[in-house]
Specification:
Layout (H helix, E strand, L loop, with lengths): L3 H10 L10 H21 L3 E2 L1 H4 L1 E7 L6 H10 L7 E5 L3 E6 L4 H15 L6 E6 L1 H30 L2 H25 L2 E2 L1 H28 L11 H38 L3 H22 L1 H9 L3 H17 L34
Parallel strand pairs: 1-6
Antiparallel strand pairs: 2-4, 2-5, 3-4
Helix pairs in contact: 1-9, 2-7, 2-11, 4-5, 6-7, 6-8, 7-8, 7-10, 7-11, 8-9, 8-10, 9-10
Length: 359
């Protein structure tokens, strides 16, 4: 059994290759289904938006000895003012209660009920209120941020790679990452807060970076692809994916370790909060971004390029060349694209020597 390093060297040299691009239609179909399913879940089930988006009243109770969620819910409902109560644990000695918007008198009544339920002082119960107009503004700004990010990505990718196909493939890969993350939040009904939106934008940048690395390798290998007739554009792209696969996995593992630590330790000790909201979005999006940069962006790039006349003509030329070189009409051997092969060190006798000069 080969080691991880040997596996990486085999992928880079072309000795071992995974058929990512040859199965491009399967990966593209799965990606399309995931995008539709993710946004459909968000529309049908709905996202659990935080109070910053919906507006409402919030009460933070600290210095309590028993973090009973049922006690908070019973105390608030016992006032007869609200029925919709959301209770979350904060740290090891705190509870957060969120309700629809309350006026001053109702807020004071709920505060008194919480003081009695947990046996704390008035100073241990803090209340705040967010109006619906502010929540609508936050929602609007979050949507604007996502749209502006996508537009800038399209412009910069097109300029950098001088290829609209690469920009379109990268954008669809980013859309896949958003759909996966939104779907996970919809299924699990995890709270979506402004910190979660920050996490969304962060994972899009991470996924884009990983895609750019793969596309840089694609551009390097396909610079003169149409000047030869041994390999197709799709085969060179598949080599680029395999050559960058180990790097993508290593980068993702290194990034996921601290994010996972923040997520799981935060959930176990701190409860829900800003760090948990960001880390959950990051953890989900990083996994989706690693997958999309390998199995979605590059296959989509090939599908877009194959719509062009030049690529189709070159593929036909390669097919005719292989058919002509095959013996007795047999099917050509599987293609192994390996433009870079490791060398070996020659003996000392083959090393250059420096002439000695007389003084």
């Amino acid at each position: 059994m080969m080691s991880f390093a040997q596996w990486g060297n085999a992928l880079y040299s072309g000795e071992k290759s995974y058929r990512v691009v040859p199965n491009r239609r399967i990966f593209a179909g799965v990606a399309a289904a995931v995008i539709v399913l993710g946004f459909a879940l968000a529309a049908i089930i709905g996202l659990n938006r935080s109070i910053e988006f919906t507006g409402g009243s919030q009460f933070d109770v600290t210095n309590i000895s028993d973090q009973s969620e049922s006690a908070a819910a019973a105390a608030v409902r016992g006032t007869g003012l609200v029925d919709d109560v959301r209770v979350t644990l904060v740290g090891s000695e705190g509870v957060r209660i969120q309700t629809p918007s309350l006026d001053s008198a109702s807020t004071a009544a709920v505060r008194d009920a919480l003081v009695s339920a947990y046996g704390v002082s008035d100073a241990d119960v803090q209340s705040s209120s967010i109006g619906p107009s502010w929540g609508a503004s936050v929602t609007s700004k979050a949507a604007q941020s996502l749209v502006i990010f996508m537009i800038l990505v399209a412009i910069l990718m097109t300029i950098y790679f001088r290829s609209w196909e690469m920009a379109a493939a990268a954008l669809l890969a980013l859309l896949h990452d958003v759909a996966v993350t939104v779907g996970v939040f919809a299924i699990g009904q995890f709270e979506v807060s402004p910190a979660t939106v920050i996490g969304f934008l962060t994972i899009l940048g991470y996924s884009l970076y990983d895609t750019v690395v793969v596309f840089d390798k694609v551009r390097e290998l396909t610079t003169d692809v149409y000047d030869q007739k041994r390999y197709t554009f799709a085969e060179y792209v598949n080599l680029a994916v395999n050559q960058t696969m180990v790097r993508s996995i290593n980068t993702s593992v290194v990034a996921l370790l601290p994010v996972g630590a923040i997520l799981f330790i935060g959930l176990a000790t701190l409860g829900s909060g800003t760090l948990t909201d960001i880390s959950l979005a990051l953890f989900t999006g990083m996994i989706a971004g690693t997958y999309s940069s390998i199995f979605i962006a590059s296959p989509l790039l090939v599908l877009f390029r194959e719509r062009g006349t030049r690529t189709r003509e070159h593929d036909a030329l390669v097919a005719r060349s292989r058919a002509a070189s095959s013996e007795d009409g047999a099917a050509p051997a599987p293609v192994r694209v390996a433009p870079i092969t490791p060398g070996r060190r020659l003996s000392n006798d083959h090393q250059p020597t420096r002439k000695r000069t007389r003084r």
